[in-house]
UniProtKB/TrEMBL annotation, chain A:
Keywords: Phosphoprotein. The modification 4-aspartylphosphate is found at D53. PROSITE patterns: RESPONSE_REGULATORY. This is Two-component system chemotaxis response regulator CheY.
Amino acid sequence: MKKKVLTVDDSRTIRNMLLVTLNNAGFETIQAEDGVEGLEVLEEANPDVIVTDINMPRLDGFGFIEGVRRNEKYRAIPILVLTTESDAEKKNRARQAGATGWIVKPFDPTKLIDAIERVTA
Amino acid sequence: MDMNEIKEIFFQECEEQLAELESGLLKLNDGDRDPETVNAVFRAVHSIKGGAGAFGLDDLVSFAHVFETTLDCVRSNKLEPNQDVLKVMLKSADVLADLTNAARDGGSVDEARSKQLIRELEALANGEVPAASEAPASKPALASQAAAPAPAAAPAVNDEGFQPIPFSFDDFGDEEKPVAPFAPTCEILFHPKRELYSKGNEAALLLRDLSRIGEMSIRCDMDSLPLLEDMNPEEAYFSWKISLVTEKGEDAVRSVFEFAEWDCDLEVRTVEEDVEADAGDDELPMQPVPFDLSILDDGDAGATAEADEPAEKEPVAATENNVVPMAAAARAEAPKTETRSAPAAQQAAAAPAAAAASAAQAAAAAPTIRVDLDRVDRLINLVGELVINQAMLSQSVIENDNNGVSSINMGLEELQQLTREIQDSVMAIRAQPVKPVFQRMSRIVREIADVTGKSVRLVTEGENTEVDKTVIDKLAEPLTHMIRNAVDHGLESPEKREAAGKNPEGTVRLTAKHRSGRIVIELADDGGGINREKVRQKAIDNDLIAADANLSDEEIDNLIFHAGFSTADKISDISGRGVGMDVVKRSIQALGGRITISSKPGQGSVFTMSLPLTLAVLDGMVVTVAGQTLVVPLTAIVETLQPEASAIHSFGASQRLISIRNSFCPLVDVGRILNFRSTQANPVDGVALLVESEGGGQRALMVDAIQGQRQVVIKSLEANYTHVPGIAAATILGDGRVALILDVDAVVAASRGQSLKQEISLAATG
């Protein structure tokens, strides 16, 4: 069984990069464009791990993570925050919202896969 | 999909983000203080920065970073986005666009300008950040930027470079142990808190990762595990003591706990001498955890290739079997049993509901797809052929079927209607809002306002008005020129305006709207209006008119459309360059459009352009002239009439006038103008088409007969043959014959004395 990754990012560029990187690394990838869509597809996608951006329209990464954590079924799913924000304040907020870990952009395939493997069995 | 394609997507996305950025900034400029507007602006820059970082576009990243930092100050209400701030930001948006273009096309940018703006942006961010305590995170970065003379690269690199553990080890200090020549042993005490699990981290995985960086022995402390009835399934009861023989040092160990360090008690220390590998049989609660170290064999943590996947499967599964049950016991996997319970279900439902509520606030965007323009054009061409084919079919059926079998006729009618609908729908695909062009104009206004030292405000209306993409593309250039003219020549200097009792800030209003099947674009300024005395004098100086010519105001105004006409006393940088309003007029005409001007002294001028919605089809009147079939664009025709002999008056040697409702209108024999015949036809035998050409007033075009009205598909003559004076394009009629489409304006111009060839060549060199 391939591991399933749900990615949530509003940037088409980053979505495509995630898709290519994750598919190449043998993951199954489901993509959402913002937090609202992320929560909508969550049940159906039934991912093993979530990678999400912070700055997004409609519902940002913080809100999305909180939404996932409120869901009994997914409250313990690993969530990685993919964002250019490297300052401690933003990381802290993401952590408080329930993020498992983070990947600091610029986007680097090795870092991404490394981080995913760290939080998944 | 490869990286180049993604890069292409990135640049497409950049363009959208830049448009978003600019429209957001303009909204803020108009006093919009909706936080979502600020957020959208911030996201646009942020998004560009993110993508640019992935492609190593450092210039773009550094500029976007500084821009973003300043925008963040606005977002967090530390900086009030007043006019001055927005001025800098709009300019920064322009530079960001330049940098994006340079990154895509390999051009260069005005570095002095971008550096200047970086300084201005930083000044804004610094000036308004009140205290260090309010911005602990951004303050140091800003300070370092301000200190460095060329700050562009430095902060961005720091910011973007991924150093796994750059902060917050206060508890341990930043002691850096020199790497010992032999593999040292790390002693690790790891006590997870319940938060560690609730955030999706997993002690077993951390232990697995530790095992990958060295040889490990591990003990689990289960002392705090209560009796089953006292056990809280959510609580974390276990802790671990680990000895790890590794050459990678404490940093590597800590980086394993990077995601978990807040949610656990962690002690890491290096012991120099080889510690006893096995110290604890005497401590009963500390039992060796059966940890499958076979994963060490493929323990490359950075492995990404698929090849690693199958190899890892088994060991990982083994790890789960051996270790996870313990960790699972620690948090008891509550979700699995509770999923179906009612409150949980409610909670689960609540999340999307809340999300939906916030979604409702944002305007729901209709789903769209992106299609290669070539495909659309191919489709449009095909539909054009279909229209022609359908017309031919109808015609041959009508010709061959004199009984008029009603079912065939009905079918044909339906076919005709369907064809028409298909055509409309296809055209709608190409229709785009004029917004992008209008947005580009705001930049033009800013630039020229800067150069001329005038204060200008651009107001746009109807920017969602849709028109064929070809029209939009070709609109930018004339519009740019007109905007420059409006600011440079139209608007007065702030001092003059104030003296005249006007707002020192001039307004340029750009409006688009649909009117009777065409798009009408108006450009109005509230400047001084056309100085008719000056225009007149200039026209006399340039021999455009006789010194004693008696011209109406309208005629004088229209003089500015003459080749090489410029009323500016000195040729400025902006509207100089030998490009005048005549070029604008010709571009508009080439689009099948008309341009008119109306001006009021002291109050400003209004340029009105009327353009067809599409360049692919045209509603035309099919006429016969000297045995030839011609198509006259319907939009040009005011009315048609059958002249009576008494209404025709001779004027001079060859001119004739027709009197229509007590006014005289020159009569133009189309057949004569186009050299279809050498002598003028008798007007009484033909039909007069009263046409309106821009500036030239009305003319009556004489044709021999009217065949009917029809929508025709425009086939360019230039593309397939060559330009023919007096002819705009060609089309294929229902009977398969080619018909020429009359260029009404050229014909009218030709009727003003000059022959067609002269007029055309004059215009071409003008």
